[in-house]
Each structure stands twice: as C-alpha cells, then as structure tokens.
Amino acid sequence: NATVGQVEAQWKKIVPGEPFKYFFFDQNLNAQYENEKRAGLLFGVFSGLAIIIACVGLFGLAAYTASLRTKEIGVRKVLGASVSSVVILLSKEFTKLILIAFVIAVPFGWYIMSNWLEGFAYRTDLGPRVFLIAGVTALLISWITVSYQSIKAAIVNPVNSLRSE
Q1: Given its phi and psi angles, is residue 123 left (phi above 0), alpha (psi -120 to 50 degrees) or beta?
Q2: How many whole angstroms separate alpha carbon 65 and alpha carbon 76?
Q3: For the chain, what percentages of helix, strand and coil (3-state, to nearest 5) are there?
Q4: Prediction pTM value
Q5: From first to last of its 165 residues, what are the pLDDT tens digits of the chain?
Q6: Burial code of 70-89, b = ≥16 C-beta within 10 A, e = fewer?
Q7: Helices (runs of H) and strands (runs of E) counted in the chain
Q8: How far apart are the first and last CA of the chain?
C-alpha cells in the first residue's frame, strides 16, 4: 500500500490532470482466464449429464437386446454355454459399436481441440494418449452398463425361456 501511495504521488506530480489507475498483474491474469474456468465447469457438468443419459440409453438398449435374444441364450445354455460366454456374446456387439463411434469421433475431437488450443500462448500438444484414455474410459463405462443386463440374461434358467417352444 505504501508503494502504491508513493507511485500515485509521483503520478500526480508528472500528470496532474489524469486519474491514477493501477492493477496487479495476477488479478488481471486471473480475470482473463475466468471465462475459461467458467466454460470448463459448464463443459464438465454437461459432459457428466450426457454420459448419464447415454448410459441410461445403453442400459435400455442392452435390456431390449437381451429380451430379443432370450431364446437364443436359452438354447446356448442348454447346449453348454457358460455365463461368461453369454456375457461376452452380448457385450461383443456393443464393443463393436463403441469402437466404430471412437474411430468416427477422434478426428472431430482432435480438430476441435487443436483449434481451441491455438488461442493460448502456452499450450500443450494433443497426443494419441489423450484419445486412447478417452476411448478406454468409454469402453469401460459401456461394459459396466451392459454387464448388468448381460449377466441377468445369462443366469436365467434356460427352461423358463424355452418353455413356450
């Protein structure tokens, strides 16, 4: 405060008609990045919401697929299929869809992120590791979501599903 007072006194001696305006560099820098912080928070909230909605949709799709394939699962179980083989059978389709979506989304994500990062003086380069982590995370979330319905369909007594045949 004493230094600011001394600088203000010198300012009034040199330029008496102009008001003395000052700011601290760290406050100015924080103000510049406040919009980025707010956008990051908003992006995080809506990303989480989108993931929850996608998981609910995937859960419904897995339940629908399992109900359509009830008789097939029953026949496989009667012929000696294990629970793990039935779970892998049902999860394989969803894994293919996730991988196709990943291949389509990576170029778009790379392009959008590269353009956004160009606006910063100090920036990091986008490597394949970021996209691989995102893809593995999406795959794990889909497996967790689908596994409940797959296990539920796999442990059902095959007699109940084949009774109407």
Answers
A1: beta
A2: 16
A3: 80, 0, 20
A4: 0.68
A5: 788 888 888 888 888 888 888 778 888 888 878 888 898 899 999 999 998 998 899 889 888 888 888 888 888 888 888 888 888 888 888 899 889 999 999 999 999 988 888 877 777 888 899 899 999 998 998 888 888 888 888 887 777 777 765
A6: eeebbebbeeebeeeebbeb
A7: 6, 0
A8: 89
